[in-house]
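User: Please predict the structure of the protein below. I'd like the answer in structure-token form so I can feed it into my own downstream comparison script.

Assistant: Understood. Taking the following sequence of 198 residues as input:
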Amino acid sequence: MQEDYYYTVEKNSLAEFKDRGSKFIAYVFPVTSVNEFKKKLAETKKEHPKATHHCFAYRIGTDGNLFRTADDGEPSGTAGKPILGQLDSKQVTNVLIIVVRYFGGTLLGVPGLIHAYKTAAAMALQLTPIVRKPVMMHYHLQFDYTKMNEIMRIIKKFNCIITKQEAQLFCILEIDVPLINVKEVIARLEEIEGIELT
């Protein structure tokens, strides 16, 4: 069963962890798509061109099924997985963490690396507030202008979000409806004559 709410972050944050000369800089970013992730990774690499590693983990989508990790040259499982573990321990989604490492000359070993990446990610996550958001369902409406006020009242009452609005021969609205209110919103909208709902 899908939950009605999910947890995420709305602000970027940054934390730094040092271990035996190596510097780990962790960035937390809110992201909602793989393209957004790619952009943030490219920006971070540009900002830290001399860093030895740019490791990351993200989880996207309210079902949490879209995720990826990368060790970026560190021993397998020592960077991406511990970073993802921090996202999962906070139960957040639509979040990307990139940890940039500047090598300090001393090898940390596998346990040391896992600890460093995990700690840097945890510290950065602690610095940004975790927010609860409703899971939204997307709908497309088409209707006559005369119905606009009636429909807007429903949208307002049930905290729906208009994502797109077009006015041609008919009004076209794309709305996100909180999952918790979907049944009621659909029932109210279907009572209105001449409305197409998909």
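That's the full token string. The chain has five helices and eleven strands.
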